[in-house]
Design brief:
By secondary structure, this protein is of the alpha+beta class. It has a single domain, classed as Alpha-Beta Complex (Cyclic Phosphodiesterase, Chain: A), CATH 3.90.1140. It is about 35% helix and about 30% strand. Strands 1, 2, 3, 4, 5, 6 and 7 form a seven-stranded antiparallel β-sheet that branches. A hairpin with a 5-residue loop joins strand 3 and strand 4. Helix 2 runs antiparallel to helix 3. The longest helix is centred in the N-terminal third of the chain and has 17 residues. The relative contact order is 0.27.
Amino acid sequence: MRYYLVALFDNDSYKEIEEMQKNIGKKYKLYKNLPMLHITLEIVGDPNIEKLDEILLKILKPYKKFKVEISDVICFDEPYKSVNLRIENKGYISRLARVINDTLKLHGFDVREVIQDWDLHVSLANTNFAAREWSKNEYATACTKAKKLGYHRFAIIERVELWKPINNKKEMVVKSYNLRDY
């Protein structure tokens, strides 16, 4: 099973982004339960959870809560049909993703080979966990409208979590790592 290491927002940042997610989800009737907003830092294949936890605790120990820049709307076409917010690939978020990838690779974990090609993003709407598949036209319209509205803000990352790939908030969180206060 693949696990996802994700960065999560503080409540204020989350609520702002969630408004946009709710609008798209409601208009196109995509979700019964909205998926959690997050930034995927790494995907780990079949990890030894105890060993992974030990390594992540060491990696994350010096990190404080930090800001990320959300700079625009980006869309990923078929098969994803995904409307997303672009995270600027710079600063703490970029360094954290790189350090996690490099360190886990050194310890023999199954992680992405090349992370430079990875666009950090927050998925607002896509086919994962959707109650129904949205059509090409619905997706294209949603993407165009979201791009016209645009989005540029700073958001605060307050914790990192290890998730199972399911849309059940109670069962999906395997481990949670709170970042230190400023």
